[in-house]
Each structure stands twice: as structure tokens, then as C-alpha cells.
Amino acid sequence: MNYAQHVLTHLRKDLRLEWRTKDSINGMLFFALLVVVVLAMAFDPASFPSMTRQISGGLLWVALLFAAMTALNQSWARETNNSVLDAHRLSAAPASALFIGKALANFLFVTAVEVVLAPIFTVFYNLQPLGQTWKLLVILPLGTWALVVNGTFFAALSLRTRNRETLLPLVLLPITMPALLAMIQATTAVLTGEFEPTLWIKVLVAYVIIFTTACVLLFQTVLSAD
Amino acid sequence: MAIWKDMPTATVAKPDERAPARAAIRPGQGTSATADAPAAVELQRVSRLYGSFVALREITLKLAAGSSVVMLGENGAGKSTLLKVIAGLQSPSYGQVTVFGEEPRDQRGTVAYMSHATMLYDELTGMENLTYFAGLHGGSVPSGGSRRAHLRERAAHALTEVGLDPANTRRVGEYSQGMRQRASLARVLLSEPDLLLLDEPFSNLDVGSAHSMITRLLAYVAEPAQSGLARTLLLTTHQAELAQPLARSTLTLSGGRLVALLETGKAAASRTSAPMQTGAD
Lengths: 226, 281
Hints:
The structure holds 2 protein chains of 2 kinds.
Chain A (H helix, E strand, L loop, with lengths): L2 H19 L1 H20 L6 H32 L3 H7 L4 H30 L11 H22 L6 H29 L5 H27 L2
Chain B lengths: L1 H4 L33 E12 L2 E12 L3 E6 L5 H9 L6 E6 L11 E4 L11 H12 L9 H15 L15 H14 L4 E5 L7 H16 L9 E5 L3 H4 L5 E6 L2 E7 L12 E3 L3
Parallel strand pairs in B: 3-7, 3-8, 5-6, 6-7
Antiparallel strand pairs in B: 1-2, 1-4, 2-10, 8-9
Helix pairs in contact in B: 3-4, 3-5, 4-5
């Protein structure tokens, strides 16, 4: 069996588990919606359309980042229930396939939340992008992958710690900062049309390549740790 | 290191303060075939500590391929820890462990471990769980056949062999303890391991189910492994009489020490002699 089939086997299992429990998506969706609504009520976006365009990219990504974090620990909790993770540690299947499968599943869950959140966000913040909107189709998946690939890795790393819910944001937020900056700047560039997002997209691509490679290479060590 | 002062009877010592090793593997303590048989498991003065608690104390043991060993001992004797160390799920604090001549972690796929936990997803059915693990184990797909159908067939076969219905749509989380135990056994047998480590496999089973499991295990270890070596079985139990048909040898642990070795030689009548060496007193 080849590597891709192993990845697909893990991905299918995670999608099936989520379909049965809906733990991750429900939690993420409600959290993200609450953040968007609360911030929309905290200041009046309709009265300040220019400022709203300036900060909307940041609000969207911060809401998604925090929402994703609620789901990331949950995704590994499934593996620790009944010590299933030990079965993976003894399995002949490549450990990195488990990681990629889970990261892909988390990517799909966060993307599903984005699909629901985007129109609501647009309405609440009265957004009319002034730049090339199609570029969001590149920025959103890249940014989402940057969030979930690190999040999935550090959630696995913090699995055996007592305060894993606390540890994950403490480790993840500083590591994600360059990616967060790039995705916010690129999104703001599209929304305001004031500058080109190309440079920030390139930064995001570089970040994704570097961190995906590092996480894949290091995951075996994380999985094998006592 | 107060721990060392608190162990008047312990044979564990700091590596730099150790007394000369006791006859780690004593000549003549195994059977006459010992020297020729390849070792499935070899432990050299293995100790495992949890903080200041010593779970295993200088265990020296050699199990030849084809051994069928029942490990006995009171609660907290170190049986589960020993299995985890052999499986590579925990590293020894001191000493060396090899499985088929390599580090346990290099033997992924050839060792299967069944613990108190099912290692199955509660939200999936038995069939879904087993199909998933069959997919991870891989194996060759017959030419012309669909991979998915092949995996499902293997999963259904494994479930049927332990007396579970593959068509059962109940999720594992809704299974009784006995059913969970049997599904767990099906999972470990599915990967056709060369070394099978079972931690109290009969603990939640009625006598009939336990005997069925023993029959299945006897048949399993009687078959040669894919590597060509005889299959090796090491299990822990508190029900020594129940496990007797599987016990070619019996090990007893107490307080983390290997205190007794008994060669019963009655297991798996169809199999050839399976030797074992140990450094037990």
C-alpha cells in the first residue's frame, strides 16, 4: 500500500468520526460566529467603512485562529481515548501519513467553517473588496493550511502534557505569527485595494513549505516519545 | 537520589555503581535448543522507573522465537510495564531491550500489543474499526480485486474468528466489555504479528469466551509467521489455570523482579520446542 493510500485511510477515518460526533465543526463554528458578532457589536462597521476594510482581514483571521485552536486538541483527543495512539505507534504505516491525514481533515473542517463564516462576515462588516477578490481563493487555503499544519503538530506535541489546552496556544501563537502577519496583510490588500498582496502570498507559500516539511519530518519523533 | 536508599532488596543500582552482573543468562537454564533458536525478545538488566517508583528491576530475559509464555504476578508487579517496554511503547530507564535483534521501535508492524484499553474508536463500528486497521497494516491485494473489498473481507474474517458479527451496526462504544475485548483481539490478530503481547486478555470474558479466545490463540501461534520464524506469544493474566493451555513457560514477577520461571511445556501440542532463557533467581 502506498503512502497516499495511508493518508486517505486516516483522512476518511477522521471525516467519519467528525460526521458522527460533529465535535470539532460545531465548536469552531459557534466560536467563530460569536467572535464576529461580538466584534461587530463592539464597534459599528457601517459607520466606518474605510477603517472596517483596514481591520477586517485581521478580525477574520484572528477569529479563525482561535476557532481552529478549539478543534485541534479535540482532533488528537480521539486518538488518546482507548489508547488508540499506541496502536498507531506500533503500526507499520508511516507516522507522517497519520499526521498529514489529520492535518488534511482539520483543513477541511476549518474550510467548512470559513465557507459558512465568509458570507456572514461580509454582511456584518458591510464589506465590498476593492482589490482582486479572486486572490482570496489563494490566500484563504494557504492561510488555513498554515494554521492547521502547525496546530496539528503542536497539538500532538502537547498531548502528553497535563495542561495541553493551555500549552497549545502558548506554543502555537508565537510560531504562527509570521504566517498570521502574511495572511492578514494579503487579505487586507485584497479588501482595500491599496497595495499588491503578491509579496505576502509568497511569504505565506514559503512559510507553508518550510513548516509542512519540518512537521512531517519531526512527527515520527513526536509520536514515538514516551 | 533517595530512591536508591529506600530499596534494601532491590538489585537496581545506578549504572556507575552496579555490582558485577549476576549470571544474566545462565548457561543451561534454557532448554538444549536454546543456543540455536533466534531470540524474539531479549532483555539485559532492564529497569524501568516512574519517578521514584521502580516498576521493573534488572530484568534479564530471553524468549526464543516460538515461545508461548504466561506471565503471572500480583497487581503492580510490573507485568504491564514489561509488556510496554517490549512493545517499545515505553523506554527502559536502564538496560537494553531487543526484539528480533533490533530496537523495539524498529519492529513496527511485527509486534502487536493488546492492553486493557481496546485501542479502537468508540464512535466506529467493529467492522469500520477493523477495516481501518486492516488498511494501515496493508498487505497484498489479490490481483483483479478491489482494495476496499479485500480490506473489508479481512476485517470481517477477523471479527468472525473472535465470535463477533461483522454486520453488527453497533458502535464499539456500545459494546459490552467482553465484546470490546474480543474486538481488541481481532485488531491485534489482523496485523499477523510475529510477536503477540497480550495484557490480561481474559479479564472481562466469561469462561466460554475465554476458552474460545485460547483456542484461537493456540491456532494462531501454531502457524508460522510471514518471516518464517515461529510466532511468539507473551501474555499476562491473573487467571493462571485458564491460561494453562497457552503456557509453555510461566514467568512470575513480584515487585518488579523476575522471581520464578517454570517450564510447563504443554502449550500448543502441535508446535516444536520453544526455548527460553532467563536471569531470574
